């Protein structure tokens, strides 16, 4: 595998019209079409997540390194590498991306990690779900001063999707 010399930290998120991303440790909607998009965007790339996001998954994400941040040094996550230090987790993400020749490290949630790491992200893959739901986890505001839309597709709504959605890519303005 060729080495990647300059991978970027990117976030991938699905949120409603009010930036809600979760409720009670789960997604507040069912969007199989977006889950396929999520897999395409993240496959083969290190996926960084918090403990609550890890626990919301039915199983470790196949085909990509799962890196989990927890405050509990004894926390076990079978199929993932656990970190108590944010910088160590990010460093491992960059090292794995470099070794496997991928150009992105994917931040996949949850709300606390997004808030902490958004200033360091270079690209956002945003699924804008066309609904407003109650929730307890939100994504930070995407400032037009910091981000420029690179692409937008949609509306998309497969037969099993709860709502229509748009997939938008934002790149950081430097």
From TrEMBL:
Q: In which pathway does it act?
A: Cofactor biosynthesis; tetrahydrofolate biosynthesis; 5,6,7,8-tetrahydrofolate from 7,8-dihydrofolate: step 1/1
- Provide the reaction this enzyme catalyses: (6S)-5,6,7,8-tetrahydrofolate + NADP(+) = 7,8-dihydrofolate + NADPH + H(+)
Among PROSITE patterns, the record links this protein to:
DHFR_1, DHFR_2
| Record-level GO BP terms | dihydrofolate metabolic process; folic acid metabolic process; one-carbon metabolic process; tetrahydrofolate biosynthetic process
- InterPro entries listed in its UniProt record: DHFR, DHFR-like_dom_sf, DHFR_CS, DHFR_dom
Query: Would I find Oxidoreductase among this entry's keywords?
Result: yes
Q: Known SUPFAM superfamilies for this protein? A: Dihydrofolate reductase-like (SSF53597)
The lineage's top-level taxon is Bacteria
Q: Which residues form the DHFR domain?
A: 8-172
Q: Which GO terms describe its cellular component?
A: cytosol
| The family this protein is said to belong to | Belongs to the dihydrofolate reductase family.
Name of the protein: Dihydrofolate reductase
Q: Which organism is it from?
A: Litorimonas cladophorae
């Amino acid at each position: 595998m060729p080495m990647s010399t300059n991978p970027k930290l990117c976030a991938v998120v699905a949120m409603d019209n009010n930036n809600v991303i979760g409720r009670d440790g789960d997604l507040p909607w069912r969007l199989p079409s977006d889950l396929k998009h999520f897999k395409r965007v993240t496959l083969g790339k290190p996926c960084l997540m918090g403990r609550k996001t890890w626990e919301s998954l039915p199983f470790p994400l196949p085909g990509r390194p799962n890196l989990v941040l927890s405050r509990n040094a004894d926390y076990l996550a079978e199929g993932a590498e656990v970190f108590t230090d944010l910088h160590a987790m990010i460093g491992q993400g960059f090292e794995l991306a470099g070794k496997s020749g991928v150009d992105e490290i994917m931040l996949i949630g949850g709300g606390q990690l997004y808030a902490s790491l958004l200033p360091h992200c270079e690209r956002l893959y945003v699924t804008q779900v066309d609904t407003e739901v109650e929730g307890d986890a939100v994504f930070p505001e995407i400032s037009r001063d910091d981000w420029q839309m690179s692409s937008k597709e949609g509306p998309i709504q497969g037969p099993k999707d709860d709502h229509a959605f748009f997939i938008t890519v934002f790149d950081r303005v430097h």
